[in-house]
Backbone:
């Protein structure tokens, strides 16, 4: 089995083993062992919740360095719509595009433009779809990966429509090939990402390849963009920036762009889990489409965005009003629905199974139940597992021992202490009187003590 | 696995079904078996919450099937064939306002389960047993 690529990594030197991350991971993919967090690769969905919560900044996302631009003859930047919400109200998309060009990109293709094409494709798909309801958005890679691990039964609900990032990359690539007569491998397409899950979606796509070659963290290039804004202050380049496409950067934006259906938007990975559970129980069939985003606020709340998500939301809303007032015509998009089809099937990742043999797994489950009942149920995380039940599972899988629980360890120590005291009272036969005799005399002494006590009690 | 379910406790409704789902995932039940068992467990749990004073939800997991039992202490069902009709509900108006008690619980259970048995005694309680065959067993 091939190894999973993960954007989310651990900085061993910074990790103090504090257990904050294990409590927030939505797939219970982290354990603390030997004073350091350990990520269980198969379960990690790169949502970045651990990056957000780590007080020691020990969790990080692997993105590409800007030097990678030198690997290609012609480079294209794909700014995520959420990038536009990271700046003050005076900075419009044209200026940001100018700054990116000034930083060394040969071209900028706005993901907001591709998002309009995807919205149209989704609209058509929802109209024609009569099977699994509700249709679930494929746009947030952390949600898609969450479903692979925790909700494999819902994978068939995912809209088989590519993400705005992929469609934009494809459109940008084709445009560059035609306009500059370049071979495909001479073109480098780089996404400016608000989150680690997008990096994973590029490095480990569901299809054979991603149309994107790399990703730069929004936070990492933010300073450079700010500096280069001055270069274009006088004459910023044109921007197409359709309001409906830019809106994809925030919660509810997808739904606004798709229109005309019963739609639901949910954000924040734990809220998404609640909604997916509801669908799994057979609910929400009255909803046509669910826009689910792992980050609170949507992509503007991504762990790799520099701005506070609430500030970004206000800026995004204001920007959308400005953009809606000055809409410009967009290029024609391909009509063929196949052009937008998701590149590959999304397979389940059954990483929770205790054993591949169901009989053995049932036996192990019984053991998990038994151990869980014996554990204190405080879910303190001191054992390095996220909760008592997870520790029980880890014990049964052979990854932990019951002594990892500090309370069980205390119990064992108390027993041991009692045994040591008992042993300390035992005399070897060579010393003092024989065992039986001393036992008898001990009983006699005890009885005598009790009589004295009673007497004393009466006197008092 | 056994879970206590308390009548009118909507805050915790669905918790037992979620635990059962997790157990089925750990065991590696077929996805369709899991989906159907979750629907049965949830609807049965919700029936206890809506209609009964208290009850228990019990899951027995076997390689070839999942057996679910919901036993409650409550008013009982006076007319079982009628209760099995889609849309028929005895849930009070305030429960319906919350979006529950649409009269689809028992029909959904019947649809999702391979076998279902329902017995009830007025003013004593109701016992529902449902079996979901794991279709991949023997593969």
Residues:
């Amino acid at each position: 089995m091939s190894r999973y690529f993960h954007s989310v990594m651990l900085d061993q030197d910074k990790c103090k083993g504090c257990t904050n991350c294990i409590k927030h991971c939505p797939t219970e993919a982290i354990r603390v062992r030997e004073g350091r967090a350990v990520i269980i690769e198969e379960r990690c969905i790169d949502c970045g919740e651990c990056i957000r919560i780590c007080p020691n900044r020990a969790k990080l996302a692997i993105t590409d360095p800007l030097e990678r631009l030198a690997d290609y003859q012609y480079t294209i930047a794909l700014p995520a719509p959420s990038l536009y919400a990271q700046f003050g109200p005076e900075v419009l998309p044209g200026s940001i595009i100018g700054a990116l060009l000034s930083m060394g990109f040969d071209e900028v293709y706005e993901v907001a433009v591709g998002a309009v094409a995807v919205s149209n494709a989704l609209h058509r798909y929802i109209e024609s779809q009569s099977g699994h309801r509700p249709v679930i958005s494929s746009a947030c890679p952390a949600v898609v990966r969450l479903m692979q691990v925790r909700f494999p039964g819902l994978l068939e609900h995912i809209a088989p429509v590519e993400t705005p990032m992929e469609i934009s990359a494809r459109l940008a690539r084709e445009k560059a090939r035609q306009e500059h007569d370049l071979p495909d491998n001479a073109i480098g397409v780089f996404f400016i990402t608000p989150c680690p899950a997008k990096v994973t979606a590029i490095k480990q796509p569901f299809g054979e390849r991603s149309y994107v070659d790399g990703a730069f963290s929004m936070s990492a290039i933010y300073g450079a963009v700010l500096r280069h804004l001055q270069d274009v202050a006088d004459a910023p380049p044109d921007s197409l920036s359709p309001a409906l496409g830019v809106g994809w950067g925030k919660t509810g934006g997808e739904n606004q762009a798709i229109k005309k259906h019963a739609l639901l938007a949910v954000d924040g990975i734990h809220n998404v889990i609640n909604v997916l559970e509801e669908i799994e129980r057979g609910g929400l069939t009255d909803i046509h489409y669910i826009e689910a985003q792992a980050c609170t606020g949507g992509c503007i709340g991504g762990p790799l965005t520099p701005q506070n998500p609430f500030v970004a939301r206000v800026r995004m809303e204001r920007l959308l009003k400005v953009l809606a007032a000055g809409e410009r015509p967009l290029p024609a998009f391909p009509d063929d629905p196949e052009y937008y089809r998701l590149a590959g099937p999304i397979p389940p990742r059954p990483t929770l199974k205790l054993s591949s043999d169901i009989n053995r797994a049932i036996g192990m489950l019984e053991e998990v139940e038994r151990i869980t009942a014996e554990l204190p149920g405080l879910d303190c995380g001191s054992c390095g597992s996220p909760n008592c039940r997870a520790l029980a599972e880890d014990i049964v899988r052979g990854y932990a021992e019951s002594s990892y629980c500090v309370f069980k360890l205390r119990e064992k120590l108390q027993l041991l202490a009692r045994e040591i005291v008992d042993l300390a009272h035992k005399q070897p036969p060579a010393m003092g009187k024989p065992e039986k005799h001393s036992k008898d005399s001990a009983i006699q002494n005890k009885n005598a003590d009790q009589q004295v006590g009673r007497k004393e009690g009466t006197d008092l | 696995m056994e879970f206590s379910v308390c009548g009118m406790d909507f805050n915790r409704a669905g918790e037992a079904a979620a635990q059962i789902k997790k157990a089925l995932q750990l065991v590696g039940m077929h996805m369709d078996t899991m989906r159907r068992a979750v629907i049965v467990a949830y609807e049965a749990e919700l029936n206890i919450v809506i209609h009964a004073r208290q009850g228990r939800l019990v899951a027995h997991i076997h390689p070839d099937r999942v057996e679910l039992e919901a036993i409650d202490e409550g008013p009982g069902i006076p007319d079982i064939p009628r209760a099995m009709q889609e849309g028929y509900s005895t849930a009070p108006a305030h429960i319906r306002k919350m979006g529950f008690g649409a009269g689809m619980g028992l029909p959904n259970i019947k649809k999702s389960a391979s076998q279902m048995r329902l017995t009830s005694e007025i003013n004593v309680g109701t016992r529902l047993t449902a079996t979901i065959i794991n279709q991949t067993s023997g593969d």
Notes: DSSP finds 16 helices and eleven strands in chain A.
